[in-house]
Amino acid sequence: MDFSAQVAEQAVHWLLEMQQGPLNPRQQHAWQQWLDAHSEHRRAWEHIQRVNSRLRGLSSPLAHAALNAPQAASRRQALKLLLLLGAGSAVTWGLRAHTPIPALLADYRSPLGQRRRIDLGSGGQLQLNSASAVDVQDHGAQKLIRLLEGEMLLSTPQAVTVQTAQGALRTEGARLNVREFADRTQVALFEGRVELTRSGHADMLLPVARQLSFTSTTVSPPQSLDANSGAWVDGMLVAAHMRLGDFLEELGRYRRGQLGCDAKVADLLISGTYPLDDSERILDLLEISLPVKVKRFTRYWVNVEARV
Amino acid sequence: MQIALGVMPLPPAHPVESLYQAHHSWLTGWLRRKLGCPHSAADLAQDTFIRVLTAREPSVIVEPRAFLTTLAKRVLCNHYRRQDVERAYQETLAQMPQVLAPSEEDKAIILQTLLELDQLLDGLPRPVKRAFLLAQVDGLTYPQIAAELGISVATVKRHLHKAALRCYFAL
Q: Taking the model in full, what pTM does it have?
């Protein structure tokens, strides 16, 4: 896993370019050419993505506190006496040895807080919600979409199989919303035919206009569609007597940082239609409509508490 | 510290093993005097010999004890730095409202990642580290980072370039 300094420089160059905003078509082309030019380029790029996925899992306040940790006063003097080493003691252990997170190498990926639309051809369309990832494969007449992370809405006249960690959904001319949780898949079927297949279990036809959750061994009873189901496609968060705790958890999927809720106010109920693209405004509105106070420790660390 | 210029070529068969046998208990004693704690001293002595094994240095060692204390000082410095990082981490965690705190499982992963990251970025100036965290952990744009740190966007870019080479490629 050693890279030449030249490749490292190039990979970092592209990373910084991308962080400054979307590449224009010419840059996009140049980046793709660089990526395809040598397997070492691709490995270096994937390495960066893997490290970044670990960094994204860090908590902002903890990361800033830990890396700015002051030296314990009692030791400052002792260390001076030790007359230590130069700065060049960085070691390359650790970060490289960890297993890749497959979602980072996905065919299509939507960043946090953004939605993405993918044209499947023949009138089929796939939309990805915030922080989601899919692989798309063509198996002759059959398309296979692997949902690696997050949530997607599929709308297609073709036969498409959607694979999640818990099972496969064979669809035909269907419109459905599929969301991957840590331990289960939730599926809402708006129209068309969808069959759930899991190894070791009989196939099951899903009822239309219903939603349910499944694991590799269990299926929950179907329920009527929830008001919020698929609303994200239009950039909306729809609450109909939703618990505030659940509402904030949902809103947290579209924001960076931590969005917490005190137990005292978590059971308050909230209703309304909220535009997802301005979550700060939604938080401001909460203070007007509910007896709560939105406390901002930092921009990325917000807690909703009871108003005193 | 005085380094004598005698040269001791290690026997080719098990160079580290003979070094270990000859100096392990002496090194443990040296570390115990620095630390005042026998358990940590034994652990750090092991870590020091692991460094000997992984060091890509010529197999000719000038003054084995001076060589070992140089490595042991690095190990010791790391040990102290880890304690500092862990303390800052625990203090911040304690101040966080319960609902915002990561799960028990995540805590261990986060601390481990932070320790590794701290080590990788070791020696970089503080603003460089902060700019890197603001970009990669908080997801700020360059102008936002510039505003937060009170520096120019060009400087942000230079900082991130430096930190990225270090963090991803240890350069």
A: 0.49
- B156 CB neighbours in chain A (<8 A) are none
B96 with B41, same domain: the answer is yes
Same domain, yes or no, for B44 and B13? Answer: yes
Contact B139 A47 (CB under 8 A): no
Listed in order, the ranges of chain A carrying CATH 3.55.50.30 are 235-306
Q: How confident is the model over A262-308, as pLDDT tens digits?
A: 999 999 988 888 888 888 888 988 888 889 999 887 777 788 999 87
Contact B169 A83 (CB under 8 A): no
CA distance A102 to A134: 10
B129 and B66 both lie in a single domain: no
pLDDT tens track for B77-135: 788 888 888 888 888 888 877 767 788 778 878 888 888 888 888 878 889 999 999 99
Please give the Cα distance from B145 to B129 (Å, whole number): 12
Q: What is the pLDDT of residue B11?
A: 45
Instruction: Output the average pLDDT for chain A.
Output: 82
Answer whether A229's CB lies under 8 Å from A191's CB. no
Closest-CA residue of chain A to B145: A20
Task: Please tell me which residue of chain B has the smallest CA distance to A9.
Answer: B165
In a domain, B2, yes or no: no
Residue A78 has pLDDT above 50, yes or no: no
Put simply, whether A294 touches B (Cβ < 8 Å) is no
B85 and B47, same domain (yes or no) = yes
Which ipTM was obtained for this model?
0.74
Q: Do B74 and B142 sit in the same domain of this protein?
A: no
CA distance A136 to A133: 10
CA distance B72 to B54: 14
Whether residue A277 contacts residue A235, with contact meaning beta carbons closer than 8 Å, is answered with yes
Distance from CA of A8 to the nearest CA of B (A): 7
* Element spanning B20, H or E: helix B15-35
Facing residue for A55 by CB, picked from B70, B111, B137: B137
A 46-65 residues with CB below 8 A of B? 47-48, 51-52, 54-65
**Under CATH, which architecture does the A235-306 domain have?**
3-Layer(bab) Sandwich (3.55)
Distance CA B6, CA B31 (A): 24
Amino acid letter, residue A232:
W
Domain A103-224 falls in which CATH fold? Answer: Jelly Rolls (2.60.120)
